[in-house]
Amino acid sequence: MKNQIGIDSSYSNQVVEKLNGLLSNVQVFYMNVRGFHWNITGRHFFKLHEKFEELYDDLNEKADEIAERILMLEGKPVHSFTEYLKTSEIKEKLNVSSDMATVKEVIDGLGILLKKEREIASLAAENADDGTVDLMTGYISGQEKMVWMYNAFLK
After folding, report:
1. Are the CB atoms for 132 and 121 separated by under 8 Å?
2. Looking at residue 106, what is its pLDDT?
3. Which residue, among 44, 26, 18, has the nearest Cα to 90 in the 3D structure?
4. pTM above 0.90?
5. Which run of H or E residues covers position 25?
6. What are the backbone angles phi and psi of residue 41, rounded to the nearest 5°?
């Protein structure tokens, strides 16, 4: 049986579950980065304050896009922080404010997102779900560049 956009429903249920996992990670990461933005200290305050704002704005947009993709696939996006915290591999970060520590946390968070996005892209490619593949590959290329840039900052 096919869903409204012509994707096999049994596959659709699988990818929706994975997309909800990604959504949970994006939402927890968003809150962490927002906290880093608010609480950053150190000699790189001005640059990182700006970069973290760019990153959390990007994560906010991604959360919306992921939720919309879930809806296109006839799933229901998770939408409570209780559920996000229960299913996210990225954990809440409290009292992390130094420039180097926040950047390390950002790199770790991006690594988790990349792993999940690659898994989803692979599953989607196997099932001719070009819309999900396109969404994930766009995220992957942008986040790989961010990882490279944040790592360059640490050197």
Report:
1. yes
2. 98
3. 26
4. yes
5. helix 9-39
6. -135, 165
Phi, psi of 64 (to 5 degrees): -65, -45
Query: Is 28:88 a contact under the CB 8 Å cutoff?
Result: yes
> What domains are there in the chain, each with its CATH number?
9-154 (1.20.1260.10)
CB atoms within 10 A of CB 80: 10
Name the region of 74 (left: φ>0; alpha: ψ -120 to 50; beta: rest): left
Q: Nearest to residue 129, comparing CAs of 2, 7, 4?
A: 7
The position carrying tokens 């009292």 is 95
Give the pLDDT means over successive 10-residue stretches in the chain (155 positions).
Answer: 92 97 98 98 95 98 98 97 97 96 98 98 97 98 98 96
CA 136, 142, 148, 154 dihedral sign is negative
Contacting residues for 4 by C-beta, under 8 A, at least 6 apart: 72, 74
Cα–Cα distance for residue pair 155/152, rounded to 1 Å = 5
Token digits of residue 1: 């049986």
> In angstroms, rounded to a whole number, what is the distance separating the alpha carbons of residues 111 and 109?
5
Cβ atoms of 24 and 125 within 8 Å: the answer is no
